[in-house]
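Contributing new records

If you add data, match the layout below exactly. Sequence lines come first and carry their own label; structure lines follow with theirs. Keep one chain per record. Anything else will be rejected by the validation script.
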Amino acid sequence: MRELARWLATFALVIGTATSLALASGQARVSGTVVDTTGKAIAGATITVTCPEAPTFKKVIETEPNGGFRLLLLDATKSYDFHVQAAGYAPYDHMIKVGVGTMDNEFTFSLQSDREAAASQQQAILQQPGYKELDEGLALLRSGQVDAARAKLNEAVAAVLEIAEPAAAWKRLIRPGDVVGIKSNVWRNLATPPALEEAIRVEVVGAGAAPGDVAVDDRGVLENPVFKRATAFINVRPMRTHHWSGLGTCLKNMIMFVPRPADYHGDACASLGAIWRLPEIEGKVRLNILVMLTPQFHGVGPHSFSPAFVWPYKGLIVGIDPVAVDATGARIIEAKRREHFGEERPISPPPHHIQIADTRYKLGVSDPQRIDLVRLGWMEDSLI
């Protein structure tokens, strides 16, 4: 009888162990390794897991010394974004959908070094239709042949101001004696093209501003002597998805005018409009240019960038009203996401700072029905 009792106890123990390994309904296990392009394990890499279908879900894990990681997904009916990053490497994003109740989902995430990623990015972009020609045009502009590039910008400015001659349009914006800060954006993956900055500077000087009273800056605006005494600003930046504000917009571009930008990150940067009411800025922004040459329409995590989510839209959105400019750019990004993903994929977090800049801060118009959109150039693939 004692042997039987011992046998039954052992049997119960085995049964209990097997039960503990079973997955609850709807769950799945995911594991894998993070390596570099040579196959070497990357220890301490950070993996941020989010779910587009559950915006509040977020889990952050780190890889073990052998580069491995393990994760239990409590709801495997949904798709998950895995954002992988490590010091010295370019971030990597991967969307994962596994079977409910599965335990053998193994993945290998290979990270490129920053240098490898930069080379791949340039090569990938140059292979996209139309971008080679655009890059050649910018090269001509950098070499001093600015006429062709300036022509399109001038055409847009003249249309916005409803003035036939571009030179007269710029003189409407900039007056002799103005001190002009050209607020750019230097984010390394998608910066304002230097050639475009130069084209704007040339037009501002041509309109009557003294060369010494014109400066281009981004992160140094609080210390730049020209920006400190500026009477006018030209606001120019590329459009991209953004971890804090949903979209990097013209409204967002002025955040460097406050000493602690992080103070405005709450609620998806809902209070960005307040910056535009600061005395250093209010009433001084004469023109907003949202650069849509190669916008980014998707990203996961801080400073996320992938050439796979950049496309050659080859456009500029130009306007006096920053809200209308940004609202139009947002519509294009939303349309591109529908086209790419084949379904509605809302921008996360929602870029509601654009609408709030209209309704709370009265900075402009966000309703597309009330925006007078003047189209110049080709209409193909304009998306809206």
